[in-house]
Amino acid sequence: MAESLYIHIPFCNRICTYCDFNKVLINNQPVDGYLDALIRELQTIEAQSLRTIFVGGGTPTALSEAQLSRLLAAVTDRFQVTEEFTFEANPDELTPGKLDVLNNYGVNRISLGVQTFNEDLLKVLGRSHGYDDIFNAINHMEKIGLDNYSLDLMYNLPGETMQDLDDSLRHVRTLSPKHISWYSLIIEPHTVFYNQIRKGRMKVDDDDIEGQKYEHVINGLRALGYPQYEISNFSQPAFESEHNKTYWKNAPYYGAGAGSHGYIDNTRYYNIKPVNHYIQSMEEKGSVVKETLELDRKAQMEEEMFLGLRMNRGVDVERFGSKFGRSMDDVYGSVIRQEMDKGHVRSSRGYIALTDKGRMVGNTVFMEFLL
C-alpha cells in the first residue's frame, strides 16, 4: 500500500515568469469550494497511516490562516503522519500566524521557495518576495523550533553570473539549512520566459555554461557539507527528502487536488486540472480523476531505471530482480555495459548508478534504458 501523499494547492498571489505548474491567481477564485472538494477527495483515500505528506502548488501559503487551519485539520483528522510532513511556502507569505498554524498541525518540514538571493533576479523571475523576506521567514521558523527546512534555489537564470552562485553559497553557509534543492531553469512552453526568449528579448546560457554552473553548485555545496544525493538535491546527513525519494524509488503514492497525479497498483492516475471543473466533478461524480494509465511490465522497468538513476546511490540490483522476476543483467545487461564503456554508469555495492560524467548527460543516458 502507498505510504506517501501529495496534496496540490493551485492558488498563487502572483504568477512567476518561468512556472508551468497547474496554478491560478487566487483573486476571485472559489478557494473555499476548492477546499471542500479537496477534503472530500482526501476522505476517499484508503490509507490512514502515511510515512510522508507533501503539500505543494501553486503556493499553499497563499491560503489564509483560517483556510490553512481548515485544510490541515482535515488532513490530520484523516491521516497519521509517521515521518515527514512538508509544506511549500513563499518567504513573504510565511507569517508568524501561518507558521503557528503549520506547527500546531504537525508540519515538520518547510520547502522554502527562495530561488535566488539576488534582488534583481527575483524581479526577473516574477517572485513576490524580496531579499529581506527570506531572512524574516527563516527567523520566524527558527523562533518556534521549525528548523528543518529546505531552500529551493535555481541556477542558469537570465543575467546570472558565477558571482551570484557564490553569493547563494555564502548564504547557505551562513543559514545552514538542512536541505537544498537547486534546479537548473527549464524554459517551458506557455510561460512568460518562453515567449520572451522566442521573441529574442531574453536569453539563457548555452549547455556548456550551464554545465559549468552545475558543477560549481555541486562542488560548492559538497565543500559546505551538503553531499549530492539526487541530480538536483543536496542535504546534511539524515535530512534527505523522504517524500521525494518515494518518486525516485518508483514506489506507489497518492495524489490529491486539481492537476495532481498518483501511482497505485502500477497505474498512474491524473486529476482534472481546472479548479472549477475539479469542484464540479467532485460534487456531481464523487471523483476527480480525469484519466488513468496502467503501466505494463516494460514501462515499469523503464521507470524503475530512469527514476532510480536520478539518485546518486542508483538502482538496487537485487530489488529490481525481486520486483520484476527478472535480473537486471537479463533485461539491461548490454545497455549497462555500453554505458559503463562510455563512463556514464558504474556498479557499486549492489547498485547501478550514474557517474559524475553520466550525470552531466543524464537525460541522454536515461533514453538508453527505454525498451
Protein model, in words:
The structure is a single chain. By secondary structure, this protein is α/β, with parallel strands linked by helices. It folds into 2 domains: 245 residues, Aldolase class I (TIM Barrel), CATH 3.20.20; 71 residues, Arc Repressor Mutant, subunit A (Orthogonal Bundle). It has 15 helices and 17 strands. The strands form 4 sheets. Strands 9-10-8-7-6-5-4-1-11 form a 9-stranded mixed beta sheet, sandwiched between helices. A 3-stranded antiparallel beta sheet has the order 12-13-14, with no helix packed on it. The protein has a 3-stranded antiparallel beta sheet with strand order 15-17-16. Helix 3 links the parallel strand 5 and strand 6. Helix 1 packs parallel to helix 2 and helix 2 runs parallel beside helix 3. The radius of gyration is 21 Å and the shape is globular. The two termini are 27 Å apart. The mean pLDDT is 93. InterPro entries: Aldolase_TIM, Coproporphyrinogen-III_oxidase, Elp3/MiaA/NifB-like_rSAM, HemN_C, HemW-like, rSAM, rSAM_sf. It comes from Salinicoccus hispanicus. Pfam families: HemN_C (PF06969), Radical_SAM (PF04055).
